[in-house]
Amino acid sequence: MQTTVTAVNSISHIAKQYWTLTKPRVVALIVFCAVIGMFLATPGLPGANALVAGTLGIWLVAGAAAAFNCLVEQQIDAVMARTRARPLPRGELNSVQTLVFSALVGGLGVWILYTFVNPLTMWLTVATFIGYAVIYTLLLKPNTPQNIVIGGASGAMPPVLGWTAVTNSVSAEALVLFLIIFVWTPPHFWSLALYRTQEYAKAGLPMLPVTHGPEFTRFHVFLYTIMLAATTAIPYAMKMSGLIYLLSAVVLNAIFIAYGYRLWKNYSDALAKRAFAFSIAYLSFLFAALLVDHYFYF
Ligand code: HEM
Ligand SMILES: CC(C)=CCC/C(C)=C/CC/C(C)=C/COP(=O)(O)OP(=O)(O)O
Question: Which regions span the lipid bilayer (predicted)?
Answer without folding.
Answer: 26-45, 51-72, 93-114, 120-140, 147-166, 172-195, 216-237, 243-264, 276-297
